[in-house]
Amino acid sequence: MTYTIEKVTTLIGARRYGDKDTNIGFILTDSRSLCFPEETLFFALKSERNDGHNYIPELYRRGVRNFVVTNVPKGYASDYPEANFLKVVNTLEALQRLAERHRDEFNIPIVGITGSNGKTMVKEWLHQLLSPNMFVTRSPRSYNSQIGVPLSVWLMNEQTEVGVFEAGISQPGEMLALRDIIQPTIAVLTYLGSAHQENFESLEAKCREKIILFHDAETIVYNGDDEIVARVVGEYHDYKGEKLYWSLKDSAAPFYVKNIEKKGNLSIITYIYKGEEDSYSLPFIDEASVTNSIIAAVVSRKLGLTAEEVDKRMSLLEPVAMRLEVKEGQHGCTLINDSYNSDINSLDIALDFMSRRPDHKGRRHTLILSDIFQSGENPKDLYKEVSDLCRKRGVVKFIGVGPQLYEQSDEIQISEKFFFRNIEDFIKSEVFASLRDEVILLKGARQFGFDQLTELLVKKVHETTLEVNLNAVVANLNYYRSFMKPETKLVCMIKADGYGAGAVEIAKTLQDHRVDYLAVAVADEGVTLRKNGITSNIMIMNPEMTAFKTMFDYDLEPEVYSFRILDALIKAAEKEGVTGFPVHIKLDTGMHRLGFDPENDMEELIARLKHQNAIIPRSVFSHFVGSDDDSFDAFSAQQFALFDKGSKQLQAAFDHKILRHICNSAGIEHFPDRQLDMCRLGLGLYGINSRNNKTINCVSTLKTTILQMHHIKAGESIGYSRRTILDKDSVIAAIPIGYADGLNRHLGNRHAYCLVNGQKAEYVGNICMDVAMIDVTGIDCKEGDSVEIFGEQLPVQTLSEILDTIPYEVLTTISNRVKRVYYQD
Ligand SMILES: *Cc1c(COP(=O)(O)O)cnc(C)c1O
């Protein structure tokens, strides 16, 4: 479905500059995701830190011709002769307006889903339940924000028979805009919980905001057993539509859930709808899945599915994999595993992810794709579209698995391409055996056996892994940025291998989010980043005298903290013929670790810097000793005063701007008026708030699995030196993690615990080099079950407190043999 630029101009009420006629099929808000320039309309959105207008020249060069802006570039007619600029007052509102007008074109059922949890799962399951009967357009992944919702709604086209969209809010006032865009005929509130509660005065206030989505919907779906929800809905006296709530208690409810029975791995749900009793079985037993399935059942029955259809399809539901994982593969390959439902929109997001991640070795990009289920669309057109996407996103090798792709192989216009009817044929083939040094995106539906494929392709690792959530890194970055002025620059500290999380992948993510500097401890860490395609500015905090040449060669900017290193650096630079190499001057204001003395050294330092042109001070900085603790506030003030004086003295001696910085993570939060030109974010990026010892967004989770279980009698001892004697008959499990992995020996002998299926299991006996034993008496578990050492459920701070240390130490001592697995929601 396309719109002429003229039509778009009218729909969003813009003033048009430029007169080229074009058709618009794609909307772009993030310049990095450009795919089809000719038919793209770019919305130059402004955020506190970024301004889409800055990307117009680059996008024009790359072929984009249509822009929605608040400011038309000066001299547009000569600089951008082929372009149309649509001038509006607010580009975000214009985007929302366009989506709203697009929505108006459709007279079909539209399901709008809001709630604190479960939105994505309900949406995905509804898609699985409905798609055999009708063509469903839904939000890709969790595109549910003020920008995500319009982009989702825009995806509806002539074929769409039902739309399913998520609406997520984090602040009062946001739902109104989302409601106007989605205009749901069926509005769903999944669950009211405490997510984003900080911005609302009460749960009830948040509930009122959420159910703004309900206004004007023909049918509203909610939990009749939730008192707050029922009360707030009850206030709606003039609501004329259908209140289709579900209840486990009220047999008069429109959808009465009469019974929930668990049988092995199945849940059997019996319900009464429109006076008839029916049931379905679900292949999951956890509470969230059961609730989400009930909501999906209510909506699908409302949309006309029969009880038999619901039962049959519920039994086939697939888990919703939200993650896009990056794993190390066999034979020099990197695997990007995205088992999230295979549809063309999520394929595009995954391809975008692959094409954006820099790759040091310039390895080829390969896609292994299964048949896509998108009923309604003609397969020829569908795979033609897939082929276009792949070419635009730089895929050079295409492997199709499934009967439909096999049939449609002609539509895939990629020179290196292979097709197989099923996964077994592929695995037996030469093509499979010869996968080497490639970045491989695996995108396939479960029923094609892609699980098995992934297992064969990943490098076999020790069962202990550190899972790193890259979205959480970004969320933490934004959390700290929210304390900073938009113009303040940021250094992200990724020393000690990214505080244990793995510097390279963290750096890729940070570079993608345009941080100004990355900082590592030693030159070799910087070289590794460069070799992995990191082009951001890099600072070296502990430069070794032996590595100056490496720093010049790889553009790594050293910290300079003493006259000895200053002189050696100047000498080395002069010898290599280097001039104007940027360095960072450190002042010691109270830590008494490294740095020049701001009271006594400044004159001499300035004189020596002025006397040469090999190096040039780009920044000057110092470090707080106690910004995390209010009791040091007076000392921090003294440090700041010293720094302020010394750094101003340095600046006064030079004409160019020298960036001044002193705040670390805790400082950013505690002393926003001391942010100066730049801040240095460390621990906070990894989710740990050292001011209150809370977790902001958990980044790293250390996990392992149960190797073996034993029933041991009371009086027996566990482990070396018989340090734990059992006082009752117990069940003891062995897990493959020991002190050589970074599991501190002091945690043994019941000093600490890990979590097995959410329950605390104490370490018993001395922790061994590669294995530890835990007490799982009374915990429902078996061999192969997952064990959390720290992370999402068990904060790393719990362990650091027991060990009488700080989280920094626990994170950075996880050894290299523990594989890091990265994922994105
Ligand atoms: C490590 C480090 C930081 C970051 O400190 P956090 O407390 O982790 O935020 C900042 N500046 C310097 C000089 C550092 O060495």
Automatic annotation (TrEMBL):
Keyword Nucleotide-binding tagged: yes
Active site: K495 (proton acceptor), Y720 (proton acceptor)
SMART domains tied to this protein: Ala_racemase_C
Keywords, in A-Z order: ATP-binding, Isomerase, Ligase, Nucleotide-binding, Pyridoxal phosphate
List of residues binding substrate: R593, M769
Cofactor (UniProt): pyridoxal 5'-phosphate
GO term, biological process aspect, one: D-alanine biosynthetic process
An annotated Gene Ontology molecular function: acid-amino acid ligase activity
Pfam families: Ala_racemase_C (PF00842), Ala_racemase_N (PF01168), Mur_ligase_M (PF08245)
Residue ranges of domain Alanine racemase C-terminal in the record: 699-823
InterPro entries associated with the record: Ala_racemase, Ala_racemase/Decarboxylase_C, Ala_racemase_C, Ala_racemase_N, Mur-like_cat_sf, Mur_ligase_C_dom_sf, Mur_ligase_cen, MurCDEF_CellWall_CoF430Synth
Enzyme class: isomerase
Keyword Ligase: yes
EC number(s) given by UniProt: 5.1.1.1
Pathway it works in: Amino-acid biosynthesis; D-alanine biosynthesis; D-alanine from L-alanine: step 1/1
Family: Belongs to the alanine racemase family.
Function (record text): Catalyzes the interconversion of L-alanine and D-alanine. May also act on other amino acids.
NCBIfam families: alr, PRK11930.1
Protein name as catalogued: Alanine racemase
Native source species: Segatella hominis
